[in-house]
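Attaching the record inline, Q. Sequence:
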Amino acid sequence: MAALATLFNFLVLNLALLIASLPIVTLPAAVSAATVALDRWRGEGEDRVIREFISALRSRPFLPTTAAAGVPLAAVAVGIAEVHHFARGVSLPDRVGLGFVAAALLITLTALGYVFLLAARDPAARAADLWSLSARLAIRNLFVTGPLFLAEIAVVTAGTLIDPALLLLGLPLLLLQLMRLTAQFGLRRAEQKR
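Structure, as predicted:
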């Protein structure tokens, strides 16, 4: 019975995340609210995930939350467009540009997981401080958490391309949960090195 309740909560929270993300502008706020709901569900045993999701969505100021997670999401989108642009070129400057852009995209994707986790934990943090801390953590743990973040994103993207219906069965929430766990691992690792 507990497994059925867990599956139900997972699917319902995933559906709430998808619905709240439909207007692209609300994607950062929805991801932040889902991260808060996941933290409370997994960490504190709170079983009413929709209530936690809606409470987090309503209690957090929209513009700062959108700026905190939205800017890194936009940077990822720009990075993907730049990789696509430079990958088509055959000249040496195009290859050098591709290398720089790919490295920047790797750091940005790695930092994105830390942004989601840290923004959910401290909604009052200034966006610039959050980005700076996330970038430092991403660079410090690049060779450990970087490949994990990339593998998580690649598996979920491949699953979505193979069967878009998997979006409804939990891929977005699964990605968010995996990124949250990887970011927690990176945070623990950074604290141990101090």
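The helical segments are 2-21, 27-43, 49-59, 62-87, 92-121, 127-140, 142-162, 171-193. The chain has a mean pLDDT of 89.

More tomorrow.
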